[in-house]
Amino acid sequence: MRRSSLIVALVLAAATALASTAPEDLFRPSREQAAFLSPDGTKLAVIVRNDDIQSIEVIDIADNARREVFSTEILKADETAITSISWVDNTSIMFSVYELVEGVAKLSDTRNIRRILFTSVTEPDNTIRYLQSRGLVLSALPNEPDRVLFAVSGSKSYVYKIQPSRLHAWGFRRTKTSKTDNGQITRTNRIAEIDGRAIRWVADINGVVRAVMRVAEGGKIEMMVRENAETEWSSLREWNLRAIGKRMAKAERRGTVEDIEDDPENRIYFPSAIIDGSDEFVIIAGKDDERAVFRYNYETGEKTTIYENPDAEIVDVSLSYDGQAVQEVIYYEDGAIRYFYPNSEYQSVQATLSGKFPAYSVQVASADAAGQTFVANLSSSVQPGRILAYRVATDEAVTLYETNPWLNETELTPSSAASVTAADGVVIEYYLTQPEAAAPVPLVVYPHGGPVGVRDLRIYDPFVQHVVAAGYAVLQINFRGSSGFGGDFEESGRGQFGVEILADIESAIDAVTASASIDGSRICIVGRSYGGYAALMLPTRSPNRYRCSAAHAAPTDLGLLVAASPDGGRTSLREFLVGEVGDDEVYGTLKAQSPVYQAAGIDVPVLLSHGKTDKIVDLEHSLRMKLRLERRNANVDWLLFEEEGHSFSEVENSVAYSNRVIEFLGSHLQ
Amino acid sequence: MLRRWPIAVAATLLLGGIAHGEELRYTQGYLLIDADIGRKTVNWKLNDEFAIDELPIGRTLRLVKLEKGKYQWQQISVPFFDLPHLLDVSDDSRWAFTIEGGRVNYVGTLIVGEVRETDNVDVRFVNRLSEVLDRFEAEFPEEAAQYELAYSGRHRDDFLNDYLASDDAP
After folding, report:
1. Which residues contact A495 (CB under 8 A, 6 or more apart)?
2. For residue A565, what pLDDT is reported?
3. 3-state secondary structure (DSSP) of residue B74
4. pLDDT tens string for chain B (170 positions)?
5. Distance separating alpha carbons of residues A156 and B138, to the nearest angstrom
6. Euclidean distance between the first and the last CA atom of chain B, given in angstroms as a whole number
7. How far apart are the first and last CA of chain A?
8. What CA–CA distance (Å, rounded) separates A472 from A160?
9. Could you give the CA distance from residue A123 to residue A260 in angstroms, rounded to a whole number?
């Protein structure tokens, strides 16, 4: 079973805060990072971040009263991270915390420890309890308060029903006579067992474990089911992984993969829930490169669609508390995150709130059992997250909190979406964030990384807002290869590193500079990773079009990228890179598409920057580019981040980078 | 350790680098060893005859004479406390290289770093040719004047030749 919860923009939290002209404010991480609604909809458990400390606060939706129920300070670890919260019942929660425990000399026994903790959110003393045994909490039990299903996998695998309030309290000192998890991991509490390693258990709405997927002998995966807790397991289907591999390889050679990949013998679906009163399961699975929800009969392979959206690629689907219905569907539209609710009550509330707040994406979660109070999250390119309670009776929406309230003092600029048709007929979506100005503004082209399987969104982006606040329009392009526009579109980007993708970017530039509000004579390109590559290559394609180029962590020598990838031990990465940029035997082609070998054509000032510990694109790429440009006395600025990898991990480095780029743009776009 | 297929190598010639100004025999080339060691000392083995013991913390650049031929790095050991970390690369073609006679062969930079999140030592062998250029000339001026520096790792790399021959040179 899967519990429905209100995830407050994890994606947005990752992109983190943004937007004021003070970059420290723009880049400051959200205070509230994720929120989870109680089953009865009356309380919200929120992961809160204050500097290096995380805590969990519980908000009473009726009066917006807050109470801290946990802080990572009690763990006394060097670094900690609360990763998720689930409600055990309406008065208690469980949550996962990762602790980084430094070893001797920071190396030999340094490790991440994952802890599963529990606490009441209503008891005054608020004791923190913990699981000593290593395993996985499958779910809470909707009809049994203070009970969860806990799975332990090994050569034999077990599921136990345990009572969180009886676990040892944090800080409990074990003695010779004390029992692990206070004696709850026992045969008496065992409600399911199977030979072999279990990789997925499924319980029905009554908490009876009805199905298990296990690793069987001979490299097989086997789906086992049973009618109830008293009956024996019986095998429903098994898959021979080696045989599947051979069949798929053969089909690939013949070009018949599509004919056999949906065959139940070849496709392994992992069940998310079992349909009440039937032998069918709910699966959330890929379908034509989109995500969809099905009822599935493992025995016959019969598949019935519960939900699909042919018009948009589905990002995520969550099921209702009992796992029997689709609760929420998340998808992208015009670069914004959108939410769909099959339930008509939710639809109605969403429509009402969308009317009140037309500029926002509205995510709705159910509130009290009577369906009178709902909790919603509003987000947009100028709002990382605003959580509010909506009361149906009074048609009143009350803000519970904003994730980045300090941004309210800042004027942020919303992004707009548009599209352009490339010369070969491919439609390319792009986003423009443009400051209000009386005169035409310079343009900063900001292609995303990847390039394949990654995309831009119209969500709060601190860097974009910082650049716009400095007086420049920012153009982001979902060129071919970007994710979210279907499998064919994504595949069409492969091998187009230095060809069609660059053409797509220029098509979008053409479209944007056709507007009188953009000064097409003042354009710079700024990018990271693949975006940095594009920033270096585009001036060679259109020599007089750009004023400057800023490339961070950019691959500049495609031969080096393919052949000498810094993670060279990983065959899969090498294969991935070959797939991305083309066959590495075609070295001449790679050279023709590599900025270091095209340096003579880069006739604009360049800002090069790189993280010294980058394992995706080695520092050597930027060093080579720097050498080549310096050799011809080109105008090169250089910025090295000693402790950073491929992406920025420290906020102050994001700020330093952003400031340097703004300064660089100011020198060449004014 | 390093394994060389065609010709055995005398250990006495290899250990500890070379004296400046020594001439190469026509059957020999230089191996330019570059290492960036972030923690503890590291032992780097080429073959039974040649190993570099106790590469110190920091950056090391050494020249070693080797007979022409194909080689394979064998093993990197990073001793820490009583839990030595051994990386066997004897079957990994990315750690193979060729010594061409009469020139200085750069084959890659060994990087050994701290990894806080995992139990593993971070060992990488990367092409940092552009970093090595100036340092080679500064630390081995006589050899730099006398012998051509070239990349001799497993993969094709035209960077140095193109860079030196570029007509956009000042």
Report:
1. A579, A580, A581, A582
2. 53
3. coil
4. 444 433 222 222 233 344 445 678 889 999 999 988 876 656 666 666 677 776 777 888 999 999 999 998 888 877 654 455 677 888 887 788 899 999 999 999 988 876 544 455 677 888 999 999 999 999 999 999 999 999 998 788 899 988 888 765 44
5. 63
6. 42
7. 58
8. 59
9. 56
Q: Please work out, in degrees rounded to the nearest 5, the angle formed at the alpha carbon of residue A43 by the alpha carbons of A39 and A46.
A: 105
According to the model, what pLDDT value does residue A385 have?
A: 93
Residues with Cβ within 8 Å of residue A345, at least 6 apart in sequence? A366, A371
Contact call for B126 and A569, based on CB within 8 A: no
Q: Can you give the pLDDT at residue B102? A: 93
**Residue indicated by tokens 């860097």:** A463
Cα dihedral A577, A582, A586, A587, rounded to 10, equals -40
What are B80-112's pLDDT values in tens digits?
A: 544 556 778 888 877 888 999 999 999 999 888
Q: Coil, strand or helix: which one is A393? A: coil
Is the distance from CB of A284 to CB of A318 less than 8 angstroms? no
Nearest C-alpha in B relative to A100: B117
**Which of A108, A564, A627 is the closest to B163 by Cβ?**
A627
Instruction: Using alpha carbons, list the distances in angstroms from residue A315 to A128, A311, A366.
Output: 34, 13, 21
The reported pLDDT for the residue numbered A584 is 52
Phi, psi of A620 (to 5 degrees): -50, -35
Any CB–CB contact under 8 A between A107 and chain B? Answer: yes
Residue of B80, B154, B168 lying closest to A631 (CB–CB): B168
Cis peptide before A543 (omega within 30 of 0): no
Q: Looking at the complex, report in whole angstroms how far the Cα of residue B25 sits from the nearest Cα belonging to chain A.
A: 31
How many residues can be counted in chain B?
170
A298 phi and psi angles, rounded to 5 deg: -65, -30
Of A101, A115, A93, A100, give the one whose Cα is nearest residue A44: A93
Integer Cα distance of A204 and A229 in angstroms: 11
| pLDDT number for residue B41 | 59
Nearest CB to B94; choose among A102, A568, A600: A568
Kindly list the distances between the CA atom of residue A323 and the CA atoms of A93, A96, A180, A464, in Å, as whole numbers in the listed order.
19, 22, 32, 40
To the nearest whole angstrom, how far is the Cα of A566 from the nearest Cα of chain B? 6
Q: Is the dihedral of CA A552, A555, A560, A561 positive or negative?
A: positive
Report yes or no: A236 and A299 within 8 Å, Cβ to Cβ. Answer: yes
Q: Which of A652, A621, A654, A629 is nearest to A548 (CA)?
A: A629
The CA-atom distances, in angstroms, between A147 and each of A35, A139, A140, A186 are: 22, 9, 6, 15
Q: Is A628 in contact with B166 (Cβ distance < 8 A)?
A: yes
Segments of chain A scoring below 70 in pLDDT: 1-20, 77-78, 100-112, 286-291, 367-369, 564-585
Q: Which of A79, A100, A107 to mutate to test the interface with B (most CBs of B within 10 A)?
A: A107
Residue appearing with tokens 């019986």: A234
To the nearest whole Å, the CA of A559 is away from the closest chain B CA by 7
